[in-house]
Amino acid sequence: MKRLTILLTALLTAALCAAPALAANRVETLTTDVALRADGSAHVTQVFSADTAEGTEFYVDRMDSGCLTYSRFAVSDENGPYAVLPDGQWDIDASFDEKAGKCGLLEIDGGVELCWGITEYGRHDYTVSYDIGGLAGAYSDADGFNYRFIDPDQSIFPTSASVTVRMEDGTPLTDETCDIWAFGFDGQIQFEDGVIRAWTETPLEGSRYMTVMVRLEKGCLLPERQETGAFQTVVDTALQGSDYDTEEEPITATDVLWMVGSLAAVIGIVLGISRLVKARKKAREKKRLNSVDYFRDLPNGGDLNVSYALGIGLGLCTPEHYMAARLLRLVTLGSLEPETDGQDRISLRLLREPHGGDAYDEAFYTFLESAAGGDRVLQERELERFCEDSRRGKALDELLTSCEREGRLTLFRGGSLRSKRCKKAKDLTAEGQRQWRELLGLKRYLLDFSLLAERTVSETVLWQEYMVYAVLLGIAEQVLEQVRTLYPRQLSQVERYQRCLRGTNRYNHYLYAAVARQRQAAQAARSGGSGGFASLGGGGGFSGGGSVGTR
């Protein structure tokens, strides 16, 4: 028995020592550069930043889709170019050493396989290049392509990926001559300095993919591949199932008659289901809230951006609530003072720049200062006119986006997020769950403190900060009612809070209306091909595609 124990221990130790060599291969980043030529072909350069510990080769499947050709395949790494074997002579069963420093193109059913030897285990940058013939086709109304660069069927997903599309001769690609869309990933596609760039903002995983569609005006290219029909048909197919496809079909007279006839029969069912869904949602939220302990301090270290990133990602607040909270915080910092004229008209007097070193407090204050003008007193109509300029709405939208992004980055750097995404509970680490419980715990405390034994407001300053978070969480009125009931001797303070809330809510209405208009305009431009966030779904009717992996 003793010998058996020693033997098992030795085997386990050997297995543990060998574990690093059996670790899965990884591609940390994959950059793709597509240089379009006038004839519709393209020279593609891809850089695989990889870390390998097993297998003998990389492979990239490229499907021809009945109209594409692949040629001039080449590979290099930090040590120089690889030897290119003649087409058809790549042997996937060759040894590691036989494949080292070599690459080859292998025909497969429906396309080709680009193969190269891993050559040396560890971290390396493999630069892979090839030509695609017929990438862009000529259609009756425009020229263009819809190409899938990364398939969902991958044995290795790149953690970060980007695609750049440019003209090989340097001709700028701009919103005036091109329309662009991207599908299958969490990220963006934009025009930048005469090129088109698409990039991921969270790791590719699961069923994610990366498809880019580009439509070019006639005259930008002279494609050799001639297609019958319009490119708009390609666009319509790709937009199906995407969140670009926001336009509703026109309602016909038959639709109206059907809806009127059906309305009476289904209205009761619809209302019943709606009440049931709301009741169940409310019950789940109450159960979730009651499952956490009270939290009496400011959550998340008092970082409003972190609380916003958690709240917006997990459904506890809205962008409008956040903006109202920022306004109220400027009041608590002594930077703004709501004033009434006795006729229910409220103005905001700008007193001084916010202290504390929060760049976002300063940014919101600067925006209001610009709207107020020389007298430093902001009127409702004055702010409404100021926000009618779409540039102001865009600036506010970018500021809100920056606040959320900064909050997510802080969470990620602090080990609270598994990646830079914060959309589901599974995105949180154990530390992130703790941060989330702080926010929920404060909400529970604020809603329940009238039921607790604590009957004193210990610090006015702390309660001012509490009210900022109450606004963020959408429970400010409920909290004020409790304060009014429990502390009648502090009625003047409660009434001041009430005036501040009323004033900031009215001014926040104009601010967030400008953001909403900007987002609506951006969505319309995005759907029309002017760039923006990629759609997680859609992209059908693509060409190319194929898996990437090692073996």
CA(first)-CA(last) distance: 41 Å
Question: In the residues, how many domains can be counted?
Answer: 3
Mean pLDDT reading = 87
Number of strand segments: 23
Q: How much of the sequence is in beta strands?
A: 15-25%
Radius of gyration: 30 Å
Strand arrangement across the biggest beta sheet: 5-4-9-2-1-12-15-14-21
Query: Structural class of the secondary elements?
Result: alpha+beta
The share of residues in helices is 25-40%
Task: Count the DSSP helices.
Answer: 13
Oligomerization state: single chain
Shape, principal axes of CA atoms: elongated
Give an overview of the whole structure.
This protein has helices spanning 2-18, 96-99, 231-239, 253-290, 304-313, 319-332, 359-372, 380-387, 390-413, 430-448, 460-472, 476-486, 491-527, and strands spanning 26-36, 42-52, 57-63, 69-77, 80-81, 83-84, 102-108, 111-117, 122-133, 137-138, 143-150, 158-167, 178-183, 187-192, 195-200, 210-216, 225-226, 336-340, 346-350, 377-378, 532-533, 543-544, 548-550. By secondary structure, it is an alpha+beta fold. It folds into three domains: 23-244 and 539-550, tricorn interacting facor f3 domain (Immunoglobulin-like); 251-291; 293-527. The strands form four sheets. It has a nine-stranded mixed β-sheet. Strands 10, 11, 13, 16, 17 and 22 form a six-stranded mixed β-sheet that branches. Helix 5 crosses helix 9 (390-413). The longest helix has 38 residues, at 253-290. It is elongated and about 90 Å long. Mean pLDDT is 87; it is low at 1-23 and 247-251.
